[in-house]
């Protein structure tokens, strides 16, 4: 075929095609004419037939040139495919259509020779494209092979229909579309088979896994992509199955060998290093298997063999767990959980939980006491935080086992100190919150630390057995802070926020208490105006006085008695439906001393100070007799006054015969003084135990629980009407178990009380509700 130089200066939508390359056609040759030129003089000299043949020949020759030029125009389109710079598809199709518009106009009929020439040109260019694909993919380094193969497979999928679209401009009679579709499909099959045979694709895919295990940045998901592509494009499913089986068999054999090799190498560095390194490898391998999307059966085989390697070290791990827990090596515990516990190694799980429990018990047993509230609760918080760190080392199975461990530790601590009703720890927590919240707290100095500490205490409260006791003391301490004017509003808001999430009923009580407190201030102001008395205020808490009660019949002076009676009459007029009972022991006030000091104290402490208006020296026993209070209570109250140096005693410890007098040398820069209730260092150990016994709220708590049981039983029976005694007991225990652990004997006693009160009646073995 002739070679022809020509220049196309065609500009169309981004194409500026100049000096296109020469094209050679080696197989089918067009007629040997070099230019399209029709000589009119020559036509005139020939007969009509010769004229027609010459025109046809020259027209055909022009078509060959058009076809050559159209492929030259398409060359940038194919180059863009090869260079992966975008296809320029729109421009290629539009311009190619224009070229073939000219071809169609010049066509005078079907020309088999010309059609074969077109098909040959198409096959030559597509063959060149797929040869380029093969050269591009067959790189020496594996990472380039993997990435280029995946890119090329994706490219072939995208390009194939687009190439067919480019050649859709030919006349349908030429049959180009069908020929191009068949050609691309055949070339695609030849390409993938060629890559498979020439590049040892099985070894290459296995090598991907090996490199990934070495830590190189190779994505194993490409293996699945390659296999899926071969599944789609190999000539037969049988051929694909043979290929995939060969790959998976090779992968399994080499993987098992690799697992053994890695395990042996890591163990040479010691057990702890083995857990750290092999645990890391195990997690990565599991993730690798998941990302690799390999066959389910192969995945199971790989994981099973991996677990067999791990299982061999179980005994050695069991013997080292206690040391790992003692060292608080959380990183290794996470590896133990991943390698053993999550793979159903119950022995390892039980030994781990046992070691953690032993560590926590050793930290707490014998170190919790009501005498050291701050130190005791801070120790509980430390143990709780440590338990949380251990807890977060585990996943599903380990967490399920660890969930109640902290609660078990608290129960064992209660059993150790013979606290059968589990009262001491809730009491400690509530008193600690009281220390935090009150004014001038020495526990927390800013609102952030108050918030964080209260939040942790309430989280601990979720694990205590008797939440009702904890909430009871929270409310009671709240009232006492209001009475002693020792409440910090900002801290109270923080308490309310956390209490709302813990016990909504308790928050409602506290809100009601706060409301009554604010109302009482208003009533006190009205009373002062009407009675023209400016030194009397009374705080009223209405029906919530259940939290406050007098244990002793304390004597108070006549003036104070008259003030209380006068305010009671005033209050009843304002709220005739409200029952009002005075609680003298829990009352407080401000007493003026030496005309310049203002002492905030409880009413018993105020009565003690007033006695020194008529006496210079008094014995403890004499004060107790005058106020009709136990000497232990007096020692409790007066110790705080002595600590502030308002009074002084003649002995180091306060005894019944200790003489107390006013401190004539008292001199402080501050004018406002708050007196605490008890200072234990001034009281002997025996007397402290007596004070503790006197202050015990156990009877009050038991009464509250009894009332709760009554309400629960009546509610159950009102719904069920008739129920066996055993069923009623079981259902009652279930209902109240979130609040406290009810004893069967107590429930039986409450049932008998309700029968006596005609709420229930017996009918043989059953209990009936009486409407």
From TrEMBL:
This is Cullin family protein. It comes from Entamoeba histolytica HM-1:IMSS-B. Belongs to the cullin family. One of its GO terms (molecular function) is ubiquitin protein ligase binding. Pathway: Protein modification; protein ubiquitination. Residues 424-642 form the Cullin family profile domain. InterPro entries: Cullin, Cullin-like_AB, Cullin_homology, Cullin_homology_sf, Cullin_neddylation_domain, Cullin_repeat-like_dom_sf, WH-like_DNA-bd_sf, WH_DNA-bd_sf. GO terms for biological process: protein ubiquitination; ubiquitin-dependent protein catabolic process. Transmembrane segments: none annotated. It comes from the Eukaryota.
């Amino acid at each position: 075929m002739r070679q022809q130089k020509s220049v196309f200066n065609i500009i169309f939508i981004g194409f500026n095609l100049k000096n296109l390359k020469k094209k050679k056609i080696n197989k089918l040759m067009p007629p040997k004419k070099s230019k399209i030129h029709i000589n009119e003089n020559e036509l005139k000299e020939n007969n009509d037939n010769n004229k027609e043949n010459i025109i046809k020949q020259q027209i055909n020759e022009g078509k060959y040139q058009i076809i050559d030029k159209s492929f030259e125009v398409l060359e940038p389109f194919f180059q863009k495919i090869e260079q992966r710079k975008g296809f320029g598809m729109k421009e290629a199709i539009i311009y190619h259509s224009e070229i073939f518009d000219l071809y169609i106009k010049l066509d005078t009929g079907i020309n088999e020779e010309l059609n074969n020439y077109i098909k040959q040109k198409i096959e030559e260019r597509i063959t060149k494209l797929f040869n380029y694909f093969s050269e591009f993919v067959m790189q020496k380094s594996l990472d380039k092979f993997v990435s280029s193969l995946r890119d090329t497979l994706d490219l072939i999928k995208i390009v194939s229909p687009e190439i067919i679209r480019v050649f859709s401009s030919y006349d349908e009679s030429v049959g180009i579309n069908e020929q191009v579709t068949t050609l691309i499909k055949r070339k695609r099959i030849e390409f993938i088979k060629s890559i498979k045979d020439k590049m040892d694709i099985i070894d290459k895919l296995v090598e991907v896994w090996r490199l990934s295990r070495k830590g190189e940045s190779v994505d194993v998901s490409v293996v699945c992509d390659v296999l899926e592509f071969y599944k789609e494009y190999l000539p037969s499913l049988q051929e694909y199955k043979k290929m995939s089986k060969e790959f998976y068999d090779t992968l399994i054999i080499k993987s098992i060998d690799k697992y053994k090799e890695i395990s042996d190498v890591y163990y040479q560095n010691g057990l702890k290093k083995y857990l750290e390194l092999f645990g890391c490898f195990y997690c990565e391998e599991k993730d690798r298997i998941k990302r690799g999307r390999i066959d389910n059966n192969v995945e199971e085989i790989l994981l099973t063999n991996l677990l067999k390697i791990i299982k061999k070290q179980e005994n050695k791990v069991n013997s080292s767990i206690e040391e790992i827990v003692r060292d608080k090596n959380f990183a290794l515990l996470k590896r133990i959980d991943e390698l053993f516990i999550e793979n159903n190694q119950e022995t390892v799980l039980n030994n781990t939980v046992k070691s953690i429990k032993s560590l926590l018990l050793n930290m707490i047993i014998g170190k919790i006491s009501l005498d050291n509230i701050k130190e005791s609760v801070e120790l509980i918080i430390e143990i709780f935080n440590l338990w949380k760190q251990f807890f977060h080392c585990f996943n599903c199975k380990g967490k399920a086992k660890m969930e109640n461990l902290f609660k078990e530790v608290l129960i064992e601590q209660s059993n150790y100190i013979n606290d059968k009703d589990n009262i001491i720890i809730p009491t400690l927590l509530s008193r600690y919150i009281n220390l935090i919240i009150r004014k001038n707290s020495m526990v927390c100095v800013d609102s952030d630390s108050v918030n964080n500490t209260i939040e942790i205490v309430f989280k601990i409260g979720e694990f205590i057995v008797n939440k009702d006791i904890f909430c009871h003391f929270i409310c009671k301490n709240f009232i006492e802070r209001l009475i002693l004017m020792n409440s910090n509003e900002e801290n109270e808001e923080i308490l309310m926020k956390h209490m709302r999430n813990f016990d909504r009923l308790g928050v409602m009580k506290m809100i009601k208490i706060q409301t009554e407190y604010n109302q009482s201030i208003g009533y006190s102001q009205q009373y002062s105006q009407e009675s023209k008395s400016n030194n009397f205020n009374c705080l009223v808490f209405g029906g919530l006085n259940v939290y406050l009660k007098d244990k002793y019949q304390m004597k108070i002076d006549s003036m104070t008695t008259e003030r209380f009676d006068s305010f009671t009459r005033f209050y009843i007029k304002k709220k005739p439906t409200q029952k009002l009972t005075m609680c003298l022991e829990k009352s407080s006030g401000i007493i003026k001393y030496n005309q310049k000091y203002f002492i905030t104290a409880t009413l018993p402490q105020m009565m003690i100070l007033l006695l020194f208006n008529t006496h210079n020296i008094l014995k403890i026993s004499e004060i107790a007799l005058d106020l009709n209070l136990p000497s232990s209570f007096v020692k409790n109250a007066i110790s705080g006054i002595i600590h502030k140096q308002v009074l002084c005693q003649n002995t180091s410890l306060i005894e019944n015969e200790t003489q107390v007098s006013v401190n004539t040398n008292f001199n402080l820069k501050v004018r406002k003084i708050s007196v605490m209730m008890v200072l234990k260092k001034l009281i002997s150990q025996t007397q402290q135990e007596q004070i503790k016994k006197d202050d015990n709220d156990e009877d009050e708590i038991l009464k509250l629980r009894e009332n709760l049981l009554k309400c629960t039983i009546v509610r159950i029976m009102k719904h069920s009407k008739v129920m066996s005694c055993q069923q009623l007991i079981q259902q009652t225990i279930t209902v109240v178990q979130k609040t406290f652990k009810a004893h069967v004997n107590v429930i039986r006693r409450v049932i008998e009380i309700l029968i006596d009160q005609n709420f229930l009646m017996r009918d043989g073995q059953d209990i009936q509700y009486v409407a």
